[in-house]
Amino acid sequence: MVEASNVSSEVGHLVEALRTLTVPAKLDRQLLLEQVISSKQSNQDFEYPTFDEVEQAQLARIVDVLSGQETAHLAEGGFITLAMIRPSADGSEPKSELFGLTDSEAAQRIIQTIIDERGEDLEPILVLPVVFSSEMVEEFYKGEPKANQEKVAPIRDPNRERFQNRWEEFVDLMLSGPSTVVIFYSPDALAVERWRKVLGRNWRVKQNPPDTIRYRFAKADTHNNIGHGSDSPGSVQRELGIIVDHLRSKL
C-alpha cells in the first residue's frame, strides 16, 4: 500500500511539470484575436503565427507533457480538470464586472478572480489560448451536447436568418476568436467537481447561483455562457487529447 505522503509527493512532482511549462509568446489571446479578425476580413482561413525555433521547442514540450502518462494519471485521480474561457468574454452590460474590458482583459479578469477567491483549492497551473477549428468543435461537443443544441432555435437569431439552430450559432461563436484553455489543479482530487461548481452547472446563465462565474460574468441574453468544464476524469483526458492533437499539428 502506498503511503499518503508518497502519493502527495508524486502528485506534487507531476503538477510542477505542468506549472513550469512555458507558453509561446505568440499564443496570446489578444494577438490571436487580431489574427482571427484579419483572416475573416480577408476571407481567408485562420492560420497561427509562425513560431520561431524557441517557440517550437516550447510548444513541443507542452505537447509532450500533456500527452504523457503522468498527466493522464493526474486526470484519472481527479487532481486536474480542463476548463475553458470561450471567445467574446468581454461584457457589454453596464452592470457586468467585465464592462469596458477587452476580450483578453476579461478572460484574464475571470482567471484572476478564481485565483483570488479559490486559489487554495483550485489553482490554474496552465493557461493556454487556442483557436478552435470547426473540426475541433465537432469533436469536442459530439454526441448529446451537439444533439441538444440542434433541437432548439438560435438565441440571438430567432428568425433563423443566419443559423438554423443553436448548434450552428454556437459553432459560429467558437470560431469567432480564441478560447483560453485552463488546467486547474485541486490538491484534494476534486478538480472536476470544484470547477463545475465554481463555473455554474446550468447552461442558462441566471439560473446558476449568484457567486458562480457564469452568473457573474456571462451575458444573460446570449448563447455564450462564457465557460466550459469537463464533466468527468474521462472527459478531461478525451478533451485534452483533442487540444494536444491540435497543438501537435502546428509543430
Explained architecture:
The chain starts with a helix and ends with a helix. It has 251 residues and is α+β, with helices and mostly antiparallel strands. It contains eleven helices and four strands. It is globular and about 55 Å long. A four-stranded antiparallel beta sheet has the order 2-3-1-4, sandwiched between helices.
Radius of gyration: 18 Å
Largest sheet: 4 strands, antiparallel
Unreliably modeled segments? 1-7
Helicity, in percent? 40-55%
How much of the sequence is in beta strands? 5-15%
Shape: globular
Order of SSEs: HHHHEHEHHHEHHEH
**Lateral strand order in the biggest sheet:** 2-3-1-4
Number of helices: 11
Kindly name the structural category: alpha+beta
Number of strands: 4
How confident is the prediction overall: mean pLDDT?
91
CA distance, first residue to last residue: 41 Å
Question: Helices, strands, pairings?
Answer:
Blueprint: H1 4-19, H2 29-41, H3 53-66, H4 69-76, E1 80-85, H5 103-118, E2 123-130, H6 134-140, H7 144-150, H8 166-174, E3 179-185, H9 191-199, H10 213-217, E4 227-229, H11 233-248
Antiparallel strand pairs: 1-3, 1-4, 2-3
Helix pairs in contact: 3-11, 7-8
Keywords:
251 residues; alpha+beta; four-stranded antiparallel beta sheet; disordered N terminus
Brief synopsis:
By secondary structure, the protein is an alpha+beta fold. Helix content is 48%, strand content 10%.
